[in-house]
From TrEMBL:
Entries under PROSITE patterns matching the protein: YJEF_C_2 (PS01050), YJEF_C_3 (PS51383), YJEF_N (PS51385)
Positions contributing to (6S)-NADPHX binding: 59-63, 129-135, 159, 256, 309, 353, 425
YjeF C-terminal domain location: 221-481
Source organism (scientific name): Psychromicrobium silvestre
Name under which the protein is recorded: Bifunctional NAD(P)H-hydrate repair enzyme
Keyword ATP-binding recorded: yes
Binding-site positions, AMP: 424
The protein's required cofactors: K(+); Mg(2+)
Length: 486
């Protein structure tokens, strides 16, 4: 499990150590300098290479300056570009004493400073850290905009990319995209949330031995999947492993039902009862799927998956609503989202994409558009969980899961190739399988997101794939996970 924290929590945890005289900044700077040295070494040479350091007014800038001091002492040509009048005095003095060059943005101007920075082998972004309020401003923002336009820079972010909110991953204004972020004391939640994660590159962690509170966000890893993924025991039979009821598809969208069923079967559901249009029941179902009784109440299942491909079909919509109101664990996706009652119980999971979440919030008196959700995914997913009472899985390159109790997960194992029609239906199938097997909704949502992403990577192999291909890859992902386990 990867745990991440708010910037405030990390700062609070630093406080007692700082009061006891522990030089945390020296440890942070040492970690940052080592990351830079490693990059320089792997791309050629350390001695005589050049590093530009973008320096802000606070301790984030100080970390970068102290790292610059260490780099200068190793023979790296370092240039600190001071973004503001204010700078951490002792760090600045140490940097200068080690022979670093200083450039003041206010004197050198944006264009000159940008071309100077762009010539460096590596750039360290030490403009803003956990003390930031909002994004980069004024000439510093212009400098970063100019650097983004030049492009192709190898940037290492100090603690977090400047302009990314440490707690929420929100991005304000321009941000330099990093190849690596070296983060101190605790991984900041904003580094694992969209859109901030997209700017962070690889995340390296420098431990400062802090006593941290409960995590603000958790990300499952391979061990968590292995520990929690349901596997049949010797005495299990097809009913005891959990039966999933599926309400999916319509005459207009038969494929969505197929993909959701395929996803659920691939993820290990041993028994599925399907409710849908006669045309689909008559011949289009996978052979393993059992046609269910026509009403929700007449089917014995352990969980429901409702909504994929449900459109303009009163009978299917009735079934979706009955399943949502059944009190059983239920995943409501796509066509079931507009049918969601005002409040539901914590056994319900909803799986909107950004546009669907915006529509859901707007229907509940919070006018929202897709771009709002994309800008601050966590905030909107959290609001939806509070308003509906459901666990919310917000789809995207980084998937965010928020439970009505406020637990937050994020998963990002996927590949951009996953953005293909039907991909979400397969995800729904995987999640439905986990709910039917009795996995608690927030954990099920995070596990499904993880396995869906892994299956996408496997199916893609670096190139295009189909949603069916994602489902086909799921058993292989699970086989690799279970390898060596009895
Ligand atoms: N304390 C330690 O020993 C350690 C700190 N670490 C590093 O410290 C930063 C957090 O440092 P902090 O000084 O609290 O914050 P910042 O460096 O992010 O900078 C805050 C200063 O910047 C000004 N500010 C705030 N927002 C903006 C903005 N949008 N544009 C321009 N300037 C801004 C703010 O000034 P105000 O007076 O206006 O509030 C602050 O002066 C942390 O990220 C680590 O890198 C290490 O972890 C080691 C231990
Ligand atoms: K930074």
């Amino acid at each position: 499990m990867i745990s991440a924290y708010t910037g405030t929590a990390v700062q609070a945890a630093e406080k007692p150590l700082l009061e006891a005289g522990v030089d945390l900044m020296a440890r942070a700077a040492y970690g940052l300098a080592n990351a830079v040295l490693w990059r320089l070494r792997t791309s050629g040479r350390v001695y005589g290479s050049s590093v530009a350091l973008l320096i802000g007014p606070g301790n984030n800038g100080a970390d970068a300056l102290y790292a610059g001091e260490l780099l200068s002492r190793r023979g790296v040509r370092t240039t600190a570009v001071l973004g503001s009048e204010r700078v951490h005095g002792p760090a600045f003095a140490a940097f200068q004493a080690a022979g670093g060059t200083v450039v003041r943005l206010a004197e050198r101007g944006v264009r000159d400073s940008a071309s100077l920075v762009a010539q460096a082998d590596l750039v360290v972004d030490g403009l803003l850290g956990t003390g930031a309020r909002g994004g980069l401003r004024d000439a510093v923002a212009d400098l970063v905009a100019a650097l983004c336009e030049i492009g192709g820079l190898q940037v290492i972010a100090c603690d977090l990319p400047s302009g990314v909110n440490a707690d929420t991953g929100e991005v304000s204004g321009v941000v330099l995209s990093a190849i690596e972020t070296v983060t101190f004391g605790g991984i900041k939640a904003g580094l694992l949330l969209p859109p901030g994660e997209g700017f962070a590159g690889d995340i390296s962690y420098v431990d400062l031995d802090l006593s941290l509170p409960a995590a603000a966000l958790e990300r499952l890893d391979q061990d968590d999947l292995l520990r929690h993924w349901p596997r049949p025991g010797r005495s299990d039979h097809k009913y005891s492993r959990g039966v999933l009821g599926v309400v999916a598809g319509s005459t207009a969208y038969p494929g969505a039902a197929q993909l959701a069923l395929h996803g659920a079967l691939a993820a290990g559901t041993a028994m599925i009862r399907y409710l849908g249009p006669a045309t689909l029941r008559a011949g289009g179902l996978p052979p393993e799927v059992v046609p269910g009784a026509s009403t929700v109440a007449a089917n014995r299942v352990q969980a429901w998956l409702v909504g994929p491909g449900v459109s303009d079909d009163a009978e299917q919509e009735r079934r979706c609503l009955d399943a949502i109101n059944s009190g059983l664990p239920v995943l409501a996706d796509a066509g079931a989202l507009p049918l969601l009652p005002e409040r539901v119980g914590p056994q319900v999971v909803i799986t909107p994409h950004a546009g669907e979440l915006a529509a859901l919030l707007s229907r509940r008196g919070h006018p929202t558009v897709r771009a709002d959700v994309e800008r601050s995914a966590l905030e909107h997913a959290r609001l939806a969980a509070q308003l509906t009472g459901a666990t919310v899985l917000l789809k995207g390159a980084t998937i965010v899961v928020v439970s009505p109790q406020g637990e937050v997960h994020s998963q990002s194992e996927g590949t951009p190739w996953l953005a293909t029609a039907g991909s979400g239906d397969v995800l729904a199938g995987i999640l439905g399988a986990l709910l039917a097997a009795g996995v608690a909704p927030p954990l099920a949502a995070a596990m499904a997101a993880s396995v869906h992403g892994r299956a996408g990577v496997l199916a893609s192999g670096g190139g295009p794939m189909t949603a069916s291909g994602i489902a086909e890859a799921v058993p292989q992902v699970l086989r690799e996970l279970f390898e060596g386990i009895d």
